[in-house]
Model the fold of this input.
Amino acid sequence: MMNLILDLLKDKKILIGIGIGMIFTSLLMFGFGNRELSDSEIEERARKMGMHFEDECKVLFEGNENND
Done:
């Protein structure tokens, strides 16, 4: 198994293909960039997914409220 992998890596066509793929991928990633989200955009997206703050939740206690 290991010999098969080493034989494949000795082939220059494989190495050139891997190199071209890495260059293409890096150029593609730089093209999209990294967009930073503001705090309000993050909160808006989180609320769409179901997030809410503790002070917005109404809690009804039944019986004894001691945390024993």
